[in-house]
């Protein structure tokens, strides 16, 4: 659902995919090849939200701010399921883990990784390639070349997803019985591995 608020109508590039069960309101700018999942709320009523090219905002995320603030997701930012971004700036090619909370005036330098369930307090800034975890969240070390390569490959799947959704996604009636073997297709797996699998942990 796309909503105008006062004089502001969202600007969404035609290559982006916004799930119809997401809500995008007001002063919001969404760039190329952005994926926004169902249940996401991107609410530009009191300030502005800019989501640059190649970002993804996954299911049930919330992006909002205090009045007069601009929230910025720089190119390639990856916002995991259920995360909250409130009044923050997320640097280029960052990953915010599932169900994390990033509070007001936080600045993440480029290529930071925030672990799942982390709570990043207001006004905190992190340098480029910080690995950030905990509640309250702290930098525990620098993100390695290997880690950022893994992150970037994962984000590429989401950058392709808008086109895949337009090509192969539609409403349908469910089947009432199992009519075939429901294994994952090899094409769907795309040889992607989790961080633990890729690092041998």
Automatic annotation (TrEMBL):
Organism: Sediminibacterium ginsengisoli
Organism superkingdom: Bacteria
A Pfam family matched in the record: Hexapep
CDD domains: LbH_paaY_like
Name of the protein this chain belongs to: Phenylacetic acid degradation protein
InterPro entries with a match to the protein in the record: Hexapep (IPR001451), Transf_Hexapept/Carb_Anhydrase (IPR050484), Trimer_LpxA-like_sf (IPR011004)
């Amino acid at each position: 659902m796309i909503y105008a608020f006062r004089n502001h109508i969202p600007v969404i590039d035609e290559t982006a995919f916004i799930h119809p069960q997401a809500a995008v309101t007001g002063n919001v700018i969404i760039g190329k090849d952005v994926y926004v999942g169902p249940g996401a709320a991107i609410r530009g009523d009191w300030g502005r939200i800019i989501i640059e090219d190649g970002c993804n905002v996954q299911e049930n995320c919330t992006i909002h701010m205090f009045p007069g603030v601009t929230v910025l997701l720089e190119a390639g930012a990856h916002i995991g399921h259920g995360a909250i971004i409130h009044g923050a700036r997320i640097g280029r090619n960052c990953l915010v883990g599932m169900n994390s909370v990033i509070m007001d005036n936080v600045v993440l330098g480029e290529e930071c990784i925030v672990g799942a369930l982390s709570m990043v307090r207001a006004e905190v800034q992190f340098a480029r390639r910080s690995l950030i975890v905990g509640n309250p969240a702290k930098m525990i070390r620098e993100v390695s070349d290997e880690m950022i390569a893994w992150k970037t490959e994962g984000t590429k799947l989401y950058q392709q997803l808008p086109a895949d959704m337009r090509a192969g996604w539609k409403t349908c009636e469910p089947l009432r019985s199992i009519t075939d073997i429901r294994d994952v297709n090899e094409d769907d797996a795309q040889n992607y591995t989790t961080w633990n699998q890729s690092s041998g942990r």
